Records
---
Amino acid sequence: MKLFSPARFLFPIFFLFSDCLQSQDDLFYQAQEGNQKIVTAYSLKNASCGANRLPASLILGRAKKSDLDLCIKAIELTDCMKWNDGYPLSETCVSITTLNFN
């Protein structure tokens, strides 16, 4: 009689960690959703500042939610004087995987 079976040992471990592997997608926005969030943030800032500024880059792939949320917060916190002068956004927006048009 075999007391130790690799399958009997590995199956519970795999079952415990499979949930961690599946939840990795919860940490990222898809490109379409990330671009939509940035365009929405730009639109709201333009409306509040009376400007017509366009995003200078597009997200090409998945973007970390935490990075994109920091970028949106940077847009929200930029004062209207800097926004209307075309002040470049902080490094938080540049650090996201993008295609830059500048």
---
Amino acid sequence: MNEPDDNPTSSSRPAPYGDPPQEPRPPAASAAPPAAPVEPSAPSDPPPPAAPAPAPAPTVAAADDLYEEDEFDDGPASRWVALLATIGTALIGIVTVQVLTSLVEGFALKSGQRVGIPDDLFHRIGYPFGGLGATALVFLVVGVVLVAMPSVLGELLPESQDRLVGIALVVAVAMGVIIAIGSLLAVRANLHEYSAKNVAVPSYVRVQFTNFLLGSLGAAALSLFASIATINERGRDRL
């Protein structure tokens, strides 16, 4: 029989004397060389934003809408100017009615009916204008000024009112001419009374006639030239 080997094996050692722990083996060297460290790069500038797409050209309808918005942005001012133009037109209408009434009165008179002396048609036409008064002249001047406000301020009126203002200005020109001629005929008619009665005209009466002519002719000329200037200004605005 074979005898047991005196050299103990690792498996026959007692438990306290087991195999010593195995030393850790170093990791196997990698075949690939280590990667070089990456240097931090400087932050690059962000790319410029893309150019916005061009806006589409406005259509004719859009352009008209923009024009109307710009035109009527100042609504309250336009309403006030329209109101002033309406008042001016009304004042010119009042003066027109008074002037036409004076003409009808002059044509209705018969020769010698007023003061019992012979007179002509121009005497009878001029007589009512002596009593027309300064109120009508003031109304005419103020009416022309108010009607001219839209053109002076560059405001646009509605089409119907603008047409009415144009008519009022033409009527104001005619009324200025008629009032100027009627005032001269009124003084002539009063002087004819003194002449027909062989009475010298007193000095205070001459002063009254002069004052009357200065007021009536001055107001008529002012309204006449203001109306013509406004008509010309409106014509330039339409070009």
---
Amino acid sequence: MNQMMTILPQRELFLVIIGAVTYIALFVVPLLQPKVKHMNEVLSTVKTTYAEAKKAIKGYYPQECWADYGVPDKR
């Protein structure tokens, strides 16, 4: 009898989890996809801008000044 009491709540919990995953897959993911795509584009732009600024700083300033602009010296 005691074993039956522990199996039933686990099964119900499993069904709740399956329901939540299904809800997320059907309703939440389609809403987030355009936002994620936009944020990935923004992140790509930031990375490109940082790389260009880093090259400019390394090209125009001596190595001792790189840290002043937040560019690490990894040599």
---
Amino acid sequence: MDITIGIPLEQLRVLFTKMKNVYYIAVPDIPIEDIVSVDIELPILDKGIHFDSGAPTVKTITLTEGRNWISTARSGVPTITFQVASVADAINSLMLSPSEDESSVTMTATVNGVTYSGSGYSLTPRKIRGALFMTSEDLQSALYLPSIEGYAHLVATDGTNPAFYDVKITPMEDPRGAAIYILNNE
């Protein structure tokens, strides 16, 4: 008699391929069914994203006779980092704390015929809060982190890429107890 296969491989071919789009939502803990808009599509550098939910720490209790008696586990530390390649005002204001007077400045002179303007920011770490919605390259699946906290720092040049913010995110649980929703294309 052949063993019956409950779920064949063909039904499991639901993959999250390469990350394509990363959307920032300023208000955390919005139920996925209530999201009707996002605040910013983040310009992520190609190969500039790392998403690891964190390997659990497993402790095995062994008896003196050598038998494994029980095991326990603690959640691992997630490592979610990405690089946002933009110094647009909306990105700067999200990633950095504004200077004390929050004023914008404009040069009165020119450099090579160009006049610059912008805003001042503190380099003191600023906590980023909100939510992230990420789609796979083939749009077959998506990840929703309903509540995140993170920090960023500016990297003006690394010799290869334009200036970018290196961002480290920690997912937090929402009121339903979920830190991540894994979604598939209907």
